[in-house]
Amino acid sequence: MTALTRAALVAEARTWIGTPYRHRASLKGVGADCLGLVRGVWRGCIGPEPEPLPPYAPDWAEAARRETLADTASRHLEPIDPAMAGPGDVVLFRFRAHLPAKHAAILSGPSGMIHAYDGVSVCETVLTPWWRRRLAYAYRFPGVGAP
């Protein structure tokens, strides 16, 4: 079996660029939300998803007030210090300090990320100070070493 590399994860994530935003979707070229992108990269680089996707509404984080996304990520990805995250790692953001993290992205480099959000196709953008202030969690895909 070939070792999973950061370059392979970023390359797979980049193949999703241009996929329209669709809530709960994860089909390259057809539709994906931020979690759907991470799920798609998992399938493209690792294999079948480790658990079925539960139903969730667009306001799930506000309604539940639990770290559902972070808890799920911790079951399947290796939690790391956000300051140590590098290309190919998954990062989670909270939009408000008092709310759970509800947005995911895959780092593409020291100052870039690939993500999807409502109204925008999967895209690669700069990890601006606005995003850095909201960074709450970071995870490494299983089998990937430190940068």
Distance between the termini: 21 Å
Largest sheet: 6 strands, antiparallel
Strand segment count: 8
Q: Indicate the structural class.
A: alpha+beta
The mean pLDDT is 92
Low-pLDDT stretches: none
Order of helices and strands: HEEHHHEEEEEHE
Determine the fraction of residues in helical runs and give it as a percent range: 25-40%
The geometry reads as globular
Q: What's the alpha carbon Rg, rounded to whole Å? A: 14 Å
Largest sheet: spatial strand order: 3-8-4-5-6-7
Strand content bin = 25-35%
Number of helices: 5
Characteristic terms for this protein:
single chain; 147 residues; alpha+beta; six-stranded antiparallel β-sheet; two-stranded antiparallel ribbon; 5 helices; 28% helix; globular
What this model shows, in words?
The chain has 5 helices and 8 strands, in the order αββαααβββββαβ. It is an alpha+beta fold. The strands form 2 sheets. A 6-stranded antiparallel sheet has the order 3-8-4-5-6-7. Strand 5 and strand 6 form a beta hairpin. The longest helix has 12 residues, at 34-45.
Describe the structure concisely:
The protein has 147 residues and is an alpha+beta fold.
